[in-house]
Amino acid sequence: MAAADIVLTGAAVRTLDPSRPYADAVAVKDGLIVAVGGAADLREWQGPGTETVELAGATLVPGLTDAHSHPVWGLELASGTDLSAVTDLAALRVALRGAERREGWVLAWGLNHNAFGGREPHHALIEEALDGAPAFIRLYDGHSVLVSAAGLRAAGIHGPREFVQRASVVCDAEGRPTGHLIEHAAMDLMTRVLPRASFTERGARLLELLSGMAATGIASAHVMDLGGDALELLASVEETAELPVRLRLAPWCMPGAGDEELEWLIAVQREHGRDWRVGGVKLFMDGTVEGGTAWLEHADCHGTGTDAFWPDPAAYSAAVHRLHHAGVGTATHAIGDAAVRHVLDTVEALGARGAGAPVHRIEHIETAPDDQLGRFARLGVAASMQPPHTAYTRADHSDEWSKRLGPERAARAWRCRDLRDAGAVLALGSDWPIASYDARRVLATALAPRGAAAGHGGLTGLMALEGCTTHAALAAGESTTAGRIAVGYRADLTALGVDPVKAPADEIADAPVPLTISSGRITHRT
Ligand SMILES: [Zn+2]
């Protein structure tokens, strides 16, 4: 028998493999798990070239997956000054006054809508702090930006625009832009004038970012974007380095996509590198509650939120049908109740699907009514949710998200537990850079949801762990190759200083991460 590359001993192993839930040792070779058992059983795998890693006191679990992340696009989303700690206008002005300039621009991100204290975002609120500088400030949800007067001028934005997707250049009563640009097409008006990091710089930042993720136990990530030169960037990074986190990337299918674009989305599924591959297509059924662009069955308190992101929702359904019949799975961003319903209706209309059919999943699901919960399991639609987002809301419902929805819908915030109890597959993620990528924080907030979601029960420790392992694999159609510690499975492994199934949320959040292995490579150790 050939010797293993790595043998892990000393840890309590939680395999999540129903045929052998617990073990003491694991052997890894050529990127795969080759043996799972007692320490004595694995002695025969030890050879002269084998590295033995002693993990006394740790719990070894399948490598954690972040089922919704933006590490590549996020390099741009999260460029400039981090405003995530800003809670009011005064603090925003202080932060902008001290912000670093890049080619004269103030770039910032992570701003909470609550910082405006219920007012509409308007550049006039920040001009004095900017002293005439062009500024591009991303709101935390990634679905809108506030641009200063000089920034608007630089991009030639002087009034309202028409888009093929639900997007807008917000204007005042006189038709002058307020600087608030909502949704992708409107934000894209700025792209050509913004300063941008070089290709090499972005490659270096990607590696650094992925190393940071691996240090929190992340072995793989479902990346919900693949735009611009991302394919070239990944290929070029892999020429000289190994990715610390394996990536599965889903390019976007936006409203207005014609045959040619759909053909490209299907063809690009073949693209892959050593530790990345294209997998599935990302679509948007709506925007965000805070931005007034979530698609709701009934309007929010401002009278907005009754429109889908696809002006013709039937065109969305047609795109999903086309992708499905080409064997391509979809992941649809759907936050509002009407958006969730429409995606479920769309999958229902695909008819019966056999084993091996592409997996369709819904991202976010921030407020779901009772009558939709059981449909996930019945239709085989995976739910993908981000428990850390609950921290942007408040338990007393005084936050923008809760106020817009009103008490009845805010009471249905992030129903992770209800979906699991209704039999759904539930994958968990961070949505970095919308929230911290720390996998321990994803697990901890799944156990103990925050803000508006604090009222209902969290997941059990096992459900939360499954959300980052077996259920994440199911949501990616990879359940026969990933997500558990079993012979023949991908060697993705995470060692934690606590048992995530039994430890309380606060201990998980602070747990040491002695080791992370991705595709058989040690990507982090302490
Ligand atoms: Zn996202």
UniProtKB/TrEMBL annotation:
<protein>
    <submittedName>
        <fullName>Amidohydrolase</fullName>
    </submittedName>
</protein>
<keyword id="KW-0378">Hydrolase</keyword>
<dbReference type="GO" id="GO:0016810">
    <property type="term" value="F:hydrolase activity, acting on carbon-nitrogen (but not peptide) bonds"/>
</dbReference>
<dbReference type="Pfam" id="PF07969">
    <property type="entry name" value="Amidohydro_3"/>
</dbReference>
<dbReference type="InterPro" id="IPR033932">
    <property type="entry name" value="YtcJ-like"/>
</dbReference>
<feature type="domain" description="Amidohydrolase 3">
    <location>
        <begin position="51"/>
        <end position="524"/>
    </location>
</feature>
<dbReference type="InterPro" id="IPR011059">
    <property type="entry name" value="Metal-dep_hydrolase_composite"/>
</dbReference>
<dbReference type="InterPro" id="IPR032466">
    <property type="entry name" value="Metal_Hydrolase"/>
</dbReference>
<dbReference type="InterPro" id="IPR013108">
    <property type="entry name" value="Amidohydro_3"/>
</dbReference>
